[in-house]
Amino acid sequence: MTSVLFDAPGPRAKGRNILYSVLFVLVAAFVVWWIVVKLDDKHQLDWAKWKPFFTDSQAWTTYLLPGLGQTLLAAAISMVIALPLGAAFGIARLSDHAWVRVPAATVVEFFRSIPVLIMMLIAFEVYAQYTSVSTDDRPLYAVVTGLVLYNASVLAEIVRAGILSLPKGQTEAAHAIGLRKGQTMRSILLPQSITAMLPAIVSQLVVIVKDTAIGGSLVNFSELINSVRPLSAAYGANTIACFTVVAVIYIIVNFSLTSFATWLEKRLRAGKKSTGAVLSAASVDTGGSGTSGVQPLASTDA
What are the backbone angles phi and psi of residue 161, rounded to the nearest 5°? Predict the structure, then answer.
């Protein structure tokens, strides 16, 4: 049996595939074994280094949970601001007016080209020199500003691409029934493109959560990864254990976000299924001319 893209493998090809799979598993097992041995030689797998995360609640209440709270706070604020801002710039890039489209494209391309860490540093210096933001709040402001500027520009491109991916017939049909461009965008294009854009939007939201860690190393933002250093110092230099626990927390947070997005996407797709009634043959009148249509209006002859 053959496929559209490739021929079905024969006996020799199947044998080679099995051999390659076995070799890959053996190499992967060897790498895992080597890592475990090296960690054990350095005493990184000793129970004493992992015990605080299972027996001492202070490791969580003093270090990990406050850091997680700051990470989620910065990510949530950035998402709330970046999503509508990115949508506005994405729609503006589709404007028929050059005085709207060109500035929007310039802003999007400018901030999309600058690394987010540079924008965080610039924002931190701006808040330090030209505002009255307190020293304690300045790292949070700098991180949120950098994340919003960069991710709003990326989300703008996602929105623009999602709208352009729709068939042109949608816009033409909306114009045919008299809808203006703004009404077409709000009522026709955006509701349909949300489902197509959702996977890319969620991926960018995951990036926002992870990029909060940049603020910890640059502007001393007290996020989750920045809590590793004092935590490791307090419990005997268990750095690898700390980073492993932090990585697991990130995995749980991002998996929860993607799982919610998957559930939301299914709900949106299910909500778009037609629930209207279907015309029966009896409700359609075929006149003597052989043309079909709805039942004619009653005669109003005097």
Answer: -65, -35
